[in-house]
Amino acid sequence: MDLVKTADQKNRAAYLLHVRDPMKKLIFILAYTVAALAIFSWSASAKNERLTLLLNGQYTNKLTEATEQMNELEQEVRKVLLYQDQSAAEEPLNNIWRLSSEIRNNLSSLPLDREFSSEWMNYLTRLGDYADLASTGAIPQEKWGKALGNAAANLDEFSTEWSSVTRGMFAGGTGPNSWFAQLESEKPDKRWADLGQAVKTYSESDFPLTASEHDEQKKKDLKNLNDEPIGRDGALSRFKELFPDYDGATVHVSQSEPDAPYPFYHIRFQDGARIGYADFTERGGHLLSLLVERPVGEDVLPEADIRGRAEKFLRQAGYDDLVFEESRENSHYWHLSFVRVDPDTGGKVFADGVQVKLAKDDGEVLGVNTMEYIQKEKIKAQPINPFDPEEFFADGTEVHSEELGYTANEELVQRLCHLLVVTKKTGGRTDTYRLMVDTETGEVLKSEILR
User: Fold this and answer.
1) Is 384's pLDDT higher than 60?
2) Domain spans of the chain?
3) DSSP reduced 3-state for 131
4) What is the DSSP letter of 76?
5) What's the CA gap between 445 and 436, in Å, rounded?
6) Angstrom distance (rounded) from CA 380 to CA 403
7) For 40-77, what is each residue's pLDDT tens digit?
8) pTM of the predicted model as reported, rounded to 2 decimal places
9) Residue 44 has what pLDDT?
10) Residue 125 backbone dihedrals phi, psi, to 5 degrees
């Protein structure tokens, strides 16, 4: 009996050992999996936190810079009102144009309320254009003096409201999800809505639209788009077609509000460290804009490669009537501008442009603005009369290039012009000029010194 009992005990021990061994393996695997998931979750959370801190820093800097520029803008508007003499007013008028452009550039990359942004961008554009026209004598002094006097008072009031609304906007641990959620909320922040309404009132009082400008505004509001509506699914398909690299991204599609300046679909996406959005028109699915935020590496591609990638993207997007016009760079990005070429005359339509932003490290397209291109100008036939530069310019003027291009006259009508780059030596210094001369009337519609 003892022998039998001993054998049973041995068999039972062997059985328990056999059972426990796989259990130990299973417990080990489960523990390893939990640990790996915890590490992955921590790593992803750390990356998101770093990205949020990075964007917070970038956005705070841009917001601070824009606020400082607004204060400068108000000072320049007040300064220009001192002068009766046109030459004395030239510098502050030029500063108004420059600052309004710089503020628009800073604000365009911030996640601000879209309705407010639209109204404020419009006001800054009109203020800058008004100052530019005033500097050339196209607007009588008493007219621009009254308009800019109103603008000075409105900018002072606006700066107070702006400081209140934006105080601590990117502080307190907020991140991209919070910003975009607020942008797409059905109930926008009342402070932004009030600020946008105030700016709209400023625009109507400071720069009332003329009959020609009313027609221009219809074009800006995309009233002339007659394409078929694409629907929400169509907008998403268009996004995936143009940006196949984001096929695995988390995507959210929303539609513009009924009172938006023009109907469009807003597509917000996140793909790893990339956060961005793309807007498409409701009619036709035209890409209005793209903005992507991500860390940029140190490797730098040559400008020729960057330009080639931009041209390839534009061809794939269907923009096959554009030519490269100019480029500029900063530490991480290239900004390239393209303009449409009229098929009948071969003239460059500068008002119909596309801007593309690309990363220097790998040439990825991180920004697109096609609004001007979508608002295509209606070009009327115009004669090209004989033009002899030697008779037109004074002795000693050297013509370096001549081509055709379009620019708007005082009535905002696009006119075909001889686009010339010339040099003239005066007082021991050689200046370079860029001129646009109407091909029919011979009138100089635009003249600028290139430095």
Assistant:
1) yes
2) 45-208, 389-450
3) helix
4) H
5) 6
6) 18
7) 444 444 445 555 556 666 777 777 888 888 888 888 88
8) 0.55
9) 44
10) -60, -45
